[in-house]
Amino acid sequence: MSALPIAQAAAEIDTGDTAWMLVATALVLMMTPALGLFYAGLVRSKNTLNTFMMCVGAIAVAGVVWALVGYSLAFDGDGSLIGGLGYVGLNDVTFIPREGTTIPHLLFMAFQATFCIITAALVSGAVVERMRFGPFLIFVALWSILVYSVLAHWSFGGGWLAAGGTLDFAGGIPVEMGSGFSALAAALVVGARKDYGRQALLPHNAVYVLLGAGLLWFGWFGFNGGSGFSTGDPSVLAFVNTLLTPACSLVVWFALDLIRGRKVTAIGAATAIIVGCVLITPAGGFVSPGWAMVLGAVGALPCYAMIVWRPRTRVDETLDVLAAHGIAGFTGILFIGLFASLAWNGIADGLFFGNASQLGDQALAALVTPLYAFGMTYALLRVMGLFTSLRATEHDEAVGMDVVQHGEEAYASGEGAILVLPDADGEVLVADPS
Amino acid sequence: MSALPIAQAAAEIDTGDTAWMLVATALVLMMTPALGLFYAGLVRSKNTLNTFMMCVGAIAVAGVVWALVGYSLAFDGDGSLIGGLGYVGLNDVTFIPREGTTIPHLLFMAFQATFCIITAALVSGAVVERMRFGPFLIFVALWSILVYSVLAHWSFGGGWLAAGGTLDFAGGIPVEMGSGFSALAAALVVGARKDYGRQALLPHNAVYVLLGAGLLWFGWFGFNGGSGFSTGDPSVLAFVNTLLTPACSLVVWFALDLIRGRKVTAIGAATAIIVGCVLITPAGGFVSPGWAMVLGAVGALPCYAMIVWRPRTRVDETLDVLAAHGIAGFTGILFIGLFASLAWNGIADGLFFGNASQLGDQALAALVTPLYAFGMTYALLRVMGLFTSLRATEHDEAVGMDVVQHGEEAYASGEGAILVLPDADGEVLVADPS
Amino acid sequence: MSALPIAQAAAEIDTGDTAWMLVATALVLMMTPALGLFYAGLVRSKNTLNTFMMCVGAIAVAGVVWALVGYSLAFDGDGSLIGGLGYVGLNDVTFIPREGTTIPHLLFMAFQATFCIITAALVSGAVVERMRFGPFLIFVALWSILVYSVLAHWSFGGGWLAAGGTLDFAGGIPVEMGSGFSALAAALVVGARKDYGRQALLPHNAVYVLLGAGLLWFGWFGFNGGSGFSTGDPSVLAFVNTLLTPACSLVVWFALDLIRGRKVTAIGAATAIIVGCVLITPAGGFVSPGWAMVLGAVGALPCYAMIVWRPRTRVDETLDVLAAHGIAGFTGILFIGLFASLAWNGIADGLFFGNASQLGDQALAALVTPLYAFGMTYALLRVMGLFTSLRATEHDEAVGMDVVQHGEEAYASGEGAILVLPDADGEVLVADPS
Amino acid sequence: MKLVIGIVRPEKANDVLEALYRAEVRGVSMSRVQGHGGELDRVETYRGTTVKVGLEDKTRFEIAVSDEFVQPTIDALCDGGRTGEVGDGKIFVVPLERAVRIRTGESDQAAVTPVAK
Amino acid sequence: MKLVIGIVRPEKANDVLEALYRAEVRGVSMSRVQGHGGELDRVETYRGTTVKVGLEDKTRFEIAVSDEFVQPTIDALCDGGRTGEVGDGKIFVVPLERAVRIRTGESDQAAVTPVAK
Amino acid sequence: MKLVIGIVRPEKANDVLEALYRAEVRGVSMSRVQGHGGELDRVETYRGTTVKVGLEDKTRFEIAVSDEFVQPTIDALCDGGRTGEVGDGKIFVVPLERAVRIRTGESDQAAVTPVAK
Ligand SMILES: Nc1ncnc2c1ncn2[C@@H]1O[C@H](COP(=O)(O)OP(=O)(O)O)[C@@H](O)[C@H]1O
Ligand SMILES: Nc1ncnc2c1ncn2[C@@H]1O[C@H](COP(=O)(O)OP(=O)(O)O)[C@@H](O)[C@H]1O
Ligand SMILES: Nc1ncnc2c1ncn2[C@@H]1O[C@H](COP(=O)(O)OP(=O)(O)O)[C@@H](O)[C@H]1O
């Protein structure tokens, strides 16, 4: 891997922007374990580790695949459908900033890597408590290329959507709609848990859910605030909106909970935080703080409706990735077309400010992305299903994925556990406790 | 909402300072969920979610109220008692830095918002395990205006205390004394838990408490280090002192625990971290690292004494907000008057370095703030009590606030839970498991 | 403590670099509570708090000792074996940057303090579940001077290793090998837990372990990325490698788990994250991203082997600090000698790029450090053992360290707990519940 | 009166409750237990430590009933708890000399006969 | 000898322990159980899932006593556990054929009669 | 048939299981309990709150056996559970009128006699 002289690179780099992007990258990587905690709290205790491990597995697999090929396909050149292979194996990814950025190219790549990782991890929410771990890892590897890299290229990497004028500040297209509609497909192909719809399957630790949501929000400041790749105004606007929008979503969610069940729920609040962060993800750097607050309030409605309605169907999209990410991302993308404001983003106005065409560009993305994400994921899993069984047996599902898939318990007491002592030659003797 | 031309704003902004303030803001927001975890660990398991939710509720309500009016009242203009309405609804809060700062005004507002949020959340510690959730949310909305915004204006927003020369680097007045003495008032008005003083009410998860304290400390680096609104010397001094002071408080707390009970306690250590961070909050940017260490050691004493003494009284100020924040903030404010050093802060010396008047300015704040916070909070809750009952019934308290207030359990097993299936028309059928 | 005029200092300081180093310092401090969580999850529930408290104790004791003397011994002057006393009590540690850095000296000191703290905390992993808390605190105080400060001076502070050309970007020598081989010595002197090797002693909460590992990784970006003391290319390279290397270690660990037990384990994955971060710690700023990925993959092997083999021995190095830090650090240090690349680090090539001598320099450090760390720690604990018993009695070990050492339970239910009411005079009456 | 103790699979607990409900057996106490029976041990690995675990999670029902309700109760436990695979569990019937309802102090039949509620 | 089993509200557990202490009943074992009785179900909601929960947390006491201590033990459980509202719980008395103190191997009365301690 | 209830120290639970295994007692159910006996209270402190805790964690074994297995079972509990210090625990033997294996519905001896497995 060749690297141009250090000095030359340094020239265009801004230390402040670089400082912020270093932090933003670390924050977004932290989001994936935080998501693991959030998801782990939402499942039954016997599936705790398996659920968390799907997120860890995504870091490992999507992280490596991204460095090897994903980044290149998404960000090399401006082909309209897919990027090139110039950056394969991180070739030519050095300290020299990419066109129009003030941070080392290598850092830009790492920041984008954390996006691919968490998006793949998000999809796991649709298939927890039943999908086998091995097939899931393979799915992540293929999905991150076939779906994520493609959508990232369309919206971020100079692909046809970006070129066509569609605005997506921090990933409403590849991350939110990409994960949400892929989750729906995954849930349909993998199928419902055996007890879905006939037994109560409850979150085993709501504190994990609340803490996980808190850490996700924390990380989202890097996710949205870093998507300007600098400390410039758009970044600051997206950052501040990432505080205002979820706050409004929370207030509205409280109200909806009260209307529906006369009680404000904690799991609901955690969900509202995620929904708020997702709503502002695409719009963050394009709408005024005031409109961002409106988005948080209004955008919560369709997501809430979907979360209440989905469990009445046969679709066991277990952790509601579609509602919290797909629908929220969809809403945020359209909202740009309505209320983007040139005065704040310096790029384009929305319909409300007299620019109808922007809404068209947004609607196009809101139409195409779900179709592509759903279709490709559906096909991918169907094909995988021809070679291996995607889900655990009913018996294994009953025993629990932690013991069956990982040979561990999340909360082991050690009682009744007999130590197996392999001697030096690896031959096995059972310990004699006496 | 008008925004001045981007370019013009950019002029005075420093990317390094902005980078740091973006991070500091995210860190302080993260402190509130961390506080939720800390508090949740300190209560009984049946009140876990309600306790955590009070912090989440504070983010939602205080966050929105701050953006709508609180910020304006605290930071618009330099009226001596209260700010103006110029920034209501974030009007005129744009990218253009405030006088004397090098970061976008919008970011400054967001940073201050996170202070208001966590301060409101802190007060909940006095009323957990019995106050009803609805009234608490209303309390937060009113309190953040009547108490927080006012004190913030006095000390930060150019109000009479700041104008009079009182020094408060990161919020000893509005945040620490403000929350601590309000907590005392809240505990008195809401009243003690029914079993207080006759049964052992123990922390149900000390790991949450330790982790929460660790995350709070982490966030406090943004809290204190960001209160210089730049990466300048005062910020760096406050930041480094935020490492040194709590370390010393910990050592002294260990010693006091040993003397008292011959054992160093974990809950005590977590408390010492908070106390140390609070002690240095007002003084961070004004005293030398050496004196900061002395503050950590000496300042721990009154707080420890209060924590040991308070439970012997009839006052069920449940999580000792008064001791950990009120008393510690009070101590830190006075300490400035004694040991502030011009050589380090470039602003003023304390009595010890020959400037007696500074001690007077500090004493004034240490006298007035507790009176105002206590009095206003007491009045506010009394008035609220005329319209609604602030606390749950004895029966509900016995059952637990999670089930009663939120209709959830923190640690649900699903055993004995029968799924209720609303069909498409919303009519309810009970699932027939067979 | 004298401080030079503020203005003068400001001159050489870069706001972007300072912003990043403020964050990096906070991140590394956060790693110690995260380590506490990680370790607490790996022990039995009756030892949860004691294990976490050893990390908290390290923050307190090592933090204070560092400020008083440790920093001076490590970083004052360039004596070949040990530093001077010029910075004792933080004397002369002001805002003026150290030679060759662009951040306030005070901040540099704080950043280094967090390294000393976590290294001392790491060693506790070898003696948890049995070592008495008091002696451990004393051990930390002495060890941080006798072992850490010395090794830090050799590798970072201008000591003989650094002077001799040994490269260590972020602490493979003082932190990783220093803690790993000291852990081995500590395990040997303190001795095995009474049930070690005859009963199953299992991790009581694997979620703590996974979350702890996630937070440690998050902090490690500050740990490695901050070790360039700027936002310059070496820092960025180390930062990005801190993402790539652990991802590769995870993938390989998954494979090794599958080969060994036909199941990918969660505890294993958490371990792999730590191992990957440690592997890249010394090499981060010196090897290309491609080679960093190779390091992650290949370096995992010896660590995995050690973790499988160690429990078959009589050595109860309980949490495998030697394998995860000692061996991984050792591997990383040598890897620099093989694959360091001038094109990326601007300093030196490794053997693979034609510079054999570098491998010699690295091998020297890899040989001397383990000997010094092991020998000095062994001697220190032996001597301490002459004055006090280092470990709890068998009975106390059976009861559990939380109750015995701290007088607390991690998960208290309050059932069967009778409140003891000291009246005003401190005389004790038992509450009469009625 | 008898005290019927039933040990079943946790995943069958709700089915058992449903069956008991249908049999009009109202009063029930249940708890988590770990059981060892005919099932095979499973192997778990934590880092270098490998263990054989011979205990399975089970749910224990404790049901006090008047004599005529013993058989219906046993049937309910069997119907609700059976999967046909090893590990379904056991039912134990112990003589019950006295039963008292704490709220009222009333004794025996009154305290257990479901119809009385 | 009898084995007295008492099921009470968790929040009353300490009061019961106190009452037993006063009655000089020393040996006690207690555990957490979930009970279903005459109480009303409560409704819980988790996102789109609504459930009816018919189980209440209870604390189960298991107390082996010599015959003359049966009544005092029952009284203690009633006094300590009563609130008067549905859900106070039940007491069950089961015949106890043998009791052994593991530490010494001594049997029966010696192992349970409180005074003997 | 008898129902043997044994309460031992948690740290001895595995030794007891081993001893039962050697005695060829196969079916066992165990659970966590908290016990109060002759042991001294311990003091715990949480901030300003000091409490006396009179309960120790114990492990409760519940074992249904045919008559000839009662003594071996008791011996196994004693051997595995004894440390000789106060707190070792107790064994209680209760008459067992009926035992049913849920999987097959077969009753009594067949359901408990270990050899039958
Ligand atoms: N003799 C016994 N005493 C107490 N509990 C028993 C006994 N036999 C079985 N059990 C409980 O029943 C559960 C299932 O029993 P097992 O023998 O494994 O299945 P099956 O009854 O289908 O052969 C065990 O895990 C244990 O909890
Ligand atoms: N027949 C029974 N067998 C076992 N446990 C019972 C029985 N009846 C009641 N219980 C236990 O007692 C608790 C309280 O009983 P319940 O009938 O609700 O109150 P009350 O006795 O005041 O009518 C229940 O939750 C359950 O745990
Ligand atoms: N009479 C009893 N009824 C129920 N459980 C008892 C009784 N006596 C003792 N236990 C249980 O046995 C445990 C140990 O008993 P204890 O008297 O402390 O020890 P020892 O039997 O060695 O004197 C207690 O913690 C309790 O759980």
The coarse overall form of chain A would be globular
How do the SSEs of chain A run, as a string of H and E?
A: HHHHHHHHHHHHHHHHEE
Order of helices and strands of chain D: EHEEEEHEEH
Structural class of chain D: alpha+beta
Using DSSP, what is the number of strands of chain D?
7
Question: How is the largest sheet of chain D built, in terms of strand order?
Answer: 2-5-1-6
Beta-strand percentage range of chain D: 35-45%
Taking Cα atoms only, what radius of gyration of chain A do you get, to the nearest Å? 22 Å
Short note summarizing the structure:
The complex is a heterohexamer, with 3 copies of chain A (434 residues) and 3 copies of chain D (117 residues). Chain A is mostly helical. Chain A is 65% helix and 2% strand.
List keywords for this structure.
heterohexamer; A: 434 residues; mainly alpha; two-stranded antiparallel ribbon; 16 helices; 2 strands; disordered N terminus; D: alpha+beta; binds adenosine-5'-diphosphate
Explained architecture:
The complex is a heterohexamer, with three copies of chain A (434 residues) and three copies of chain D (117 residues). Chain A has 434 residues and is an all-alpha fold. Chain A is 65% helix and 2% strand. Chain A has helices spanning 6-10, 15-42, 48-75, 105-123, 133-155, 160-164, 172-190, 206-225, 233-261, 266-283, 289-309, 321-339, 342-345, 356-387, 394-399, 401-406; strands at residues 417-422, 428-430. In chain A, strands 1-2 form a two-stranded antiparallel ribbon. In chain A, helix 5 (133-155) packs antiparallel against helix 7 (172-190) and helix 12 runs antiparallel to helix 14. Chain A is globular and about 65 Å long. Chain A starts with 5 loop residues before the first helix and ends with a strand. Chain D has 117 residues and is α+β, with helices and mostly antiparallel strands. Chain D contains three helices and seven strands. Chain D has helices at residues 13-22, 70-81, 109-112, and strands at 2-8, 28-36, 42-46, 49-53, 56-65, 90-95, 98-101. In chain D, the strands form two sheets. A four-stranded antiparallel sheet of chain D has the order 2-5-1-6, with helices on one face. A two-stranded antiparallel sheet of chain D has the order 3-4. The mean pLDDT of chain D is 89. The chains are: A mainly alpha (434), D alpha+beta (117). At the B-C interface, helix 2, helix 8, helix 9, helix 10 and helix 11 of B face helix 1, helix 2, helix 3, helix 4 and helix 16 of C. One adenosine-5'-diphosphate sits between chains F (7, 35-39, 56, 58, 86-90) and E (27-29, 62-64, 101, 103, 112).
